[in-house]
Amino acid sequence: MVYILLKQPTKNIVSWKKAFNKFWEYRKIGGELSCNIYQTPKKENELIVLSQWTSMDDAIEFLASQSFEMIKDLESEKPLTVRLLNQHTIGHFIKTLH
Question: How does pLDDT run along the chain (98 residues), one tens digit per residue?
Fold first, then answer.
């Protein structure tokens, strides 16, 4: 399995989720299998987005797409952290977020 993990600071979680969900169909067409959004325990307005993808090639192609550029622009106040992970590295990386 291949995962894209985003760490996304937000100004307003509700409006961010609404805007993010507008890209659902583009993500699905691009190869996204599932997506979960979590609020970080340390920062109230910071989200972790964990999405599962069909392949590394599909995930990389999506990260280079115009749709992803638009997702990155949903919140331009702070930088977005993006990580490509596989089954072996995801557990270790998530532990470092706490």
Answer: 899 998 888 888 888 888 889 889 989 999 999 999 998 877 888 888 999 999 999 999 999 988 888 877 776 566 788 888 887 787 777 676 55
Q: Which residues contact 47 (CB under 8 A, 6 or more apart)?
A: 6, 7, 8, 9, 10, 13, 16, 37, 38, 39, 40
Task: Please state the pTM of the whole predicted model.
Answer: 0.82
- CA-to-CA dists, residue 40 to 20, 73, 81, angstroms: 17, 20, 13
The Cα 21–Cα 54 span in angstroms is 19
